[in-house]
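pinging the channel bc i need a second pair of eyes. not urgent but kinda urgent?? the chain im working w is below, pasted from the shared doc
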Amino acid sequence: MSTAMKQKVQEYVEKFNEKAPDEVKQKMKQAIDELENSPEGNGLEKGEKAPNFNLPDANGQTVELYEQLKQGPVILTFYRGGWCPFCNMELRAYQQIIGEIHEAGGQLVAVSPEVPDHSLSTVEKNNLEYLVLSDVGNEVANQYNLVYQLPDYLIEIYKNNGLKVDEHNGDDAWTLPVSATYVIDTDGTIVYQYTKSDYKDRAEPSEVLEVLKQV
């Protein structure tokens, strides 16, 4: 069981805070605060219908959400990209419990705006055995009300740290989805949602598994 993801995240944050310049930390906090106080990226609510979509997986095969729902409930998680250390921690934590997700009759679908080649790198790097889909242009994330524009001062920090989000996403829009996790029942109803403006704050996969078991 992976109950320790939040602990790993906390340890990573502490190490980052020790090394990062104060100005960088202040700007990153400012970006999160601004996003929290904006209408962007609030996500869909529990009880709403999950929009259907068709997206390519890491190998270019098209996956339809509602086809997956015919097999059982789906955990749908939106992540920023394989360049994001917090996303990789989350994806690996789900990999640790993928057997239990399947035993509970569920599927796991992870979506990011990265082009399929970069999604494939993420799959291989983390040894993922579940669906990792490419939502180039954030079209599906937009339907789920998750998309936000990175402010210029944050783009500057990312570029200075070698984070080429534009290359990963195949465009120069510098838009991302907020990290969000949904559990979707077989009729398409959202029965659980966890959406946070702070990209470090993720649903604990083991808790999401417990929700899935109740569906």
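so The radius of gyration is 16 Å. and Residues 5-19 form the longest helix (15 residues). — does that match what u expected or am i reading it wrong
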